[in-house]
Amino acid sequence: MVSNDGGASRSMAQSVQPLVKPAEQLAKRDALLARLRTIYDSKEILTESAQLAPFESDALTAFHETALAAVFPRTTEEIAATVRACYELDVPFLARGSGTSLSGGSLPIPGGLLIVLSKMNKILEIDLENLRMVVQPGVVNIWVSREVAAHGLYYSPDPSSQIVCTIGGNIAFNSGGAHCLKYGMTSNHILGMKVVLPDGEIVDIGGKSLESPGMDLCGLMVGSEGLLGIATEITLRLMPKPESVKTVLASYDQLEKAGQAVGDVIGSGLLPVALEIMDRLAIDAAEAAVHAGYPPDAQALLIVELDGPAAEVAPQFETLIETLRRSGASKLVIPATEAERARIWKGRKAAFSAVGRISPDYLVQDGVVPRNKLGRALREIERLSQVYGLRVANVFHAGDGNLHPLVLFDNRVPGQLQKAEQLAGEILKMCVDLGGSITGEHGIGVEKLPYMTYQFDESDMSMMYAIRNSFDPKGLSNRGKMLPSQNPERPSPHGPHPLEREGVIQRF
């Protein structure tokens, strides 16, 4: 959620009662700070409320919490010593990058330590011959591609926030982006990691090749939202820039036609590198923000991009154009220059933040539905929009069915935030009912906790708890995120969600 009210909305973020007595909490705080002073310079330990205020929320600003303290490590060894102190003193902790999580995944833990990784931002190794790079978790996504651009290489995962989000955060949520349809998510581009486990032990998992023997622990770590440890060195897979890239912008007079066109493109045998849809509200927002030059009469836009060897892309692009014409596109725009192509993508990548120009507040979800049910999902979102009396802007990775509905509301109007939350929740449940998922790349965080047991049965949840407990039996690492509390007597670290009171959430 983005809120322009200074972060005052707290519908889902309630005050949390400490799980220990105040005297015990104070003693634990003093003991931890004493340990931290043996690891860090005093200026790298923040304890004052004014110092901690910038970290009290992430991109989901409906939630607010203040950490016990924050530290800024520079090395793996400092992180290990910090985590070991937390483990021995039973203090929960959270590693945070740029704080761009849209699910509350980097929200501070009440009574917990914030480990801010912004100073671990070095590129440690570049191996051009073997197409790999080793980075610290605070390295910003776009830096990787910029560093090797002159060598004809790039890093494929490209979330919309790539100019600010970090590799560590990308790992936590298995970020994708517009070009994940062909080349995959973050998990497909991580070869190995050095990880500090929740008890402070340092381990190496994976390696420097595409295949490693034994269990795929990298695959397990990616997308675990920080519950299994902190990655401190990450080996990335680089890719050669494609010889040819062809992009087309197709406009439609109905959103449903654009959704149907997605199936037509995939059904033609093509595998685009990107296949993105924006509806009229998203188009208006993007135009207001970056003046992308989108067709003014379009009710929906479909951006399709092909890449690969020029000899292959040329005939494929002809097939694509013919397929889009048959799908009912009212206009096709083929950029003639790289600058025109970049402008098309600038509008798409700016869509989330640009919606703030047409609405004071919004909630964004990222449920997934099967591609062949896109049209049905869009119709249901439109119906829910009318039922709740709130506008919904749709921007999504259409190729893999990853919806990004943005529910627009005004938090100054009493009750609108609650209505927006309920509408967003109905969309998530719809995704599950259609055979999809409650998240594609934004993660569960704290926002989607009530819907975990809507998607997963008791057996599934028990397996997730078993994995988490095998890594972190004390439940310290990013406590309160991704998995609902196993103990019904123990309150959630972030207070009751409104839907918990309505009986939607279950606890195990």
Question: If you had to describe this structure to a student in words, what would you say it looks like?
Answer:
The chain has 508 residues and is α+β, with helices and mostly antiparallel strands. It has a domain of 190 residues: FAD-linked oxidases, C-terminal domain (Vanillyl-alcohol Oxidase, Chain A, domain 3, 3-Layer(aba) Sandwich), CATH 3.40.462. Helices cover 34% and strands 18% of the residues. It is built from 17 helices and 19 strands. The strands form four sheets. It has an eight-stranded antiparallel sheet with strand order 1-17-19-18-14-15-13-16, with helices on both faces. A five-stranded antiparallel sheet has the order 6-7-11-9-10. Strand 18 and strand 19 form a beta hairpin. Helix 1 runs antiparallel to helix 3. The chain is globular and about 70 Å long. The chain starts with a strand and ends in a 7-residue tail after the last helix. 49% of the residues are buried. The N terminus and C terminus are likely disordered.
